């Protein structure tokens, strides 16, 4: 999944535009609930080595919140890693161009949206 496709999906389904909050990190985009300040996702471009990959090439990832009881099984899937730069007990990182289908990414995003709406 390309970053632009994800942005379009989030715009259409959650009425949220990517927000670029850090001038020193221009590739980091946050998704917030349209009626509040809570984040339900963040897209980042990070060196693969930050995720434990054997490449220094930049990788687009999406961090989403998941139920703690799902963390272990989700991390067993290719393309899912402990959250980069977020609480690893509640968040995971998903490689956007990885093996997960758009549908799987959309489902994780929906769960994150629900969990962060409380």
Structural notes for this entry:
The protein has 118 residues and is α+β, with helices and mostly antiparallel strands. It has 3 helices and 5 strands. The chain has a 5-stranded antiparallel beta sheet. A hairpin with an 8-residue loop joins strand 4 and strand 5. The longest helix is centred in the C-terminal third of the chain and has 14 residues.
Keywords, separated by commas or semicolons:
globular; 5-stranded antiparallel β-sheet; 118 residues; single chain; 5 strands; alpha+beta
Write the layout of secondary structure elements.
Blueprint: H1 3-14, E1 29-32, E2 39-47, E3 58-65, H2 68-75, E4 80-82, E5 91-95, H3 102-115
Antiparallel strand pairs: 1-2, 2-3, 3-5, 4-5
What is the number of strand segments? 5
Question: Strand order across the biggest sheet?
Answer: 1-2-3-5-4
Beta-strand portion reads 15-25%
**Total of DSSP H or I helical runs spanning 4+ residues:** 3
Classify the helix fraction into a percent range. 25-40%
Order of helices and strands: HEEEHEEH
Mean pLDDT: 93
Alpha-beta content class: alpha+beta
User: How far apart are the termini?
Assistant: 28 Å
Q: What is the approximate shape?
A: globular
Low-pLDDT residue spans: none
């Amino acid at each position: 999944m390309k970053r632009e496709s994800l942005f379009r999906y989030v715009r259409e389904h959650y009425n949220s535009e990517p927000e670029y909050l850090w001038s020193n990190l221009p590739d980091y985009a946050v998704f917030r609930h349209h009626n509040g300040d809570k984040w339900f996702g963040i897209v980042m471009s990070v060196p693969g080595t930050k995720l434990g990959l054997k490449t220094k090439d930049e990788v687009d990832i999406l961090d989403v919140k998941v139920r703690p009881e799902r963390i272990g099984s989700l991390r067993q899937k290719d393309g899912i890693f402990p959250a980069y730069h977020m609480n690893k007990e509640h968040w995971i990182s998903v490689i956007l161009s990885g093996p997960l289908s758009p549908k799987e990414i959309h489902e994780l995003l929906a769960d994150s949206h629900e969990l962060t709406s409380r």
